[in-house]
Amino acid sequence: MKIAVLGTGGGARCHIAKLAELGHDVIVGTRDPEATLARTGPDMMQNPPYGQWLADHPGIPLATFGDAAAGAELVINGIDGHNAVRALAAIAGDLAGKTLIDYAVPYLYNPDIERPWPTPWGVNPILGVCDSDSLGEQIQRALPDTKVVKAFVTQEQATVVDPRSIGGGDHTMFVAGQDADAKQTVTDLLTSYGWTDILDLGDMVAARGMEMYAHMHGAIGFALGFGTHFGVKVVR
Amino acid sequence: MKIAVLGTGGGARCHIAKLAELGHDVIVGTRDPEATLARTGPDMMQNPPYGQWLADHPGIPLATFGDAAAGAELVINGIDGHNAVRALAAIAGDLAGKTLIDYAVPYLYNPDIERPWPTPWGVNPILGVCDSDSLGEQIQRALPDTKVVKAFVTQEQATVVDPRSIGGGDHTMFVAGQDADAKQTVTDLLTSYGWTDILDLGDMVAARGMEMYAHMHGAIGFALGFGTHFGVKVVR
Fold this sequence. Notes:
The structure is a homodimer. Chain A has 10 helices and 9 strands. Chain A is of the alpha/beta class. The longest helix of chain A is centred in the C-terminal third of the chain and has 18 residues, at 207-224. The mean pLDDT of chain A is 95. The A-B interface holds A 122-124, 126-127, 130-132, 166-167, 170-171, 174, 176, 199-203, 205-206, 208-210, 212-213, 215-220, 222-224, 228-236 and B 122-124, 126-127, 130-132, 166-167, 170-171, 174, 176, 199-203, 205-206, 208-210, 212-213, 215-220, 222-224, 228-236.
């Protein structure tokens, strides 16, 4: 399938590599391709520069957000939560009629500091939107002609693309969104990633819980210790 | 152990019955014992009147919040989230030096409507406090001489006291709070309830994640259908 991944961060790289490995026709979108490739320092989350990563994963084209989305059948949003609505709304035409998977957490961004959050160990960064709204709902409102599906957001993307690395893969992935066919497309993709327990949480309002779970995910991660990978299984 | 349960709602009743069954010396606290026993209609959450329930569970004394707490070694807070801080602060002296388990979700209360939330099926009620604070932290700040432990909050109390009823009991319970001994007391109680996987999430700041998980719990519950019991297992 022709799949565009928007963003070049650590999470996006997990999907890019996995999709290429699965034989999909992957294209990557970034705000300014030349600037992305020219960068020599680490990104905001301390990932090595994308150009360096790309050297180890040759042959994956890089384009603007709009050009990447325009040619794709399925689009994965890997743009930081605080930039996502603005960046996606700007290419609404390129996303019209398509399925867009969003996995962003809407962490509050403070432009006055270099990192997006000044959070001590053990305290999760706070969200810019939660409780009575969610980033998933905001994106769906900004893109009324796009079938937005919230997914992937409840754990690290490295294990989203490799669920069997945790407990043999017997844990739960969640999807939410207004369009049943779009959710089926995402469910099929997740199945190809190795997921066996995929729970449809219903309409996009469920993105509130999926995004707010970031605090619980953080707390569990702090408890288990840095670098411990985990998932959650809905036992019923 | 002498244990006080504050509150007479559905969740409190689960703990009262289980603690009595386990042979603890249980006392129940309510704002106005006479009024509680005189009530003939269902409570806010449509539970049958407490007096009716008590007739099926004879011999469990009912006292004011303060009198119940005063004689107990361990106190369980089952007061609604929107009333908890005020009601507990009023009996701070009776709670001093004790371990207090809090399992409340701080759902926003609207005094202009009869029920605490006007929420359609599929949409979780919103929280009065979240993200940068939590009810657990508020209670600990209001009771500096009490060892507050957040626990039980991530699932229905009926299955908190009967974890083996879900998946043979292989799911995860969380505790958080500042005092290690208090958390051990709660962990011992949970073990007596049948829990085998109890994860200490660290300081009370983790109550943010535990309370905000209410949206995820709600979404999963809506997806599985009314009346389906479930828990979550941290797979690692």
